[in-house]
Amino acid sequence: MGIFEREQISRSIINLEWTKHIEMGSQKESIGHQKDISALDIDEGDQMIIMASHCGQVSVANYKYLGREKWKKPMTLKLEHNALQTIKWCPLDLRLFMVTTKSNWMRVCDSTMEKVINGAQFEGDVYFHWNEHNMTNSKVAVADGSRSMKIVDFRVGLSLPQNIRWDDVPIDVVQWFPSRHHYLYAGRRDGKIGIFDVRSTRGVLAEKTIHTAPIFGIRVSKDGRRLITADRSGRIHVADTWNFQTKFQYRDEFDLHPRRRPVFEILSGKDLFVATNFHRLTVVKFDESRRIKVTESVEIAPRVLKNKPIVFRESSYELIAGHTFNYLNVLSLAKSREYVDEEEEASGLL
């Protein structure tokens, strides 16, 4: 994709529209994903989509075959009656993926052997982040609402994690820094964020109270410059990763139902885009290219999607979201007439 096209997409990415509504399996033929979609992920190559359901079913689909009814059988993982809440590919080994359950289990699974190879139960709702930047010994950071976060080293096992305590306040979210694989961010239930060096016993290196409600999500932009957090009052906060200085803020309505499991995903490049399902599915654009910082947002889906998983497909600037039952929706860039004219004019100049 050329620079001109990327700039045009960055300028108008919130002008999106649903382009695909795809059934991911057939109950009649007993193939494909036949249950609801409670969790969703796509691999680093933007090809293999993995889906999970509230009844424990896990399925894989190739992006290029979406809508062609080339379904695969669901995996035989023996996770029946496990309400799966999150699912993530291992960034270093595509054979492996990890799931979390409503009963606070975290399990490591092998997609080729179709079996669970390791697992552990934690104290509360499991939030984890796989360190994809340490190529020799990738570790997983886990927050479970307890007073300490856990660092899991698979050479030792899930049952013997390194515990890092931060005062006496529950820790709900964790995120590794992109390039320095020993730096770890954490978010507490009282709205404070902090950064730790997991090699050190010094404790928190820097901390700041940013939110006034419990934090449910935390991300770091790919360039390592921005820390994005979201809380249960409907607020998204974008800060500098080192001094936590506020760069952007956005607030939306939020459904306070205790069973709500809000999610948000980011797409970072020239601008920063955040997709969230606070009250309904919404895309927010934080534009740093102008002298005056600009925040734009658009609500792009009805409330039926507020509980559904979402994931960005970065290579095509698409947003994939779960829908009712076993359907996926794909949100793509809607090319305006102005965009098409500019694109044709540029191609004529080449």
TrEMBL record:
GO terms for biological process: proteasome-mediated ubiquitin-dependent protein catabolic process; protein polyubiquitination; transcription-coupled nucleotide-excision repair. It comes from the Eukaryota. SMART domains: WD40. SUPFAM superfamilies: WD40 repeat-like. Gene3D superfamilies: YVTN repeat-like/Quinoprotein amine dehydrogenase (2.130.10.10). GO terms for cellular component: Cul4A-RING E3 ubiquitin ligase complex; nucleotide-excision repair complex. It comes from Caenorhabditis remanei (Caenorhabditis vulgaris). This is Uncharacterized protein.
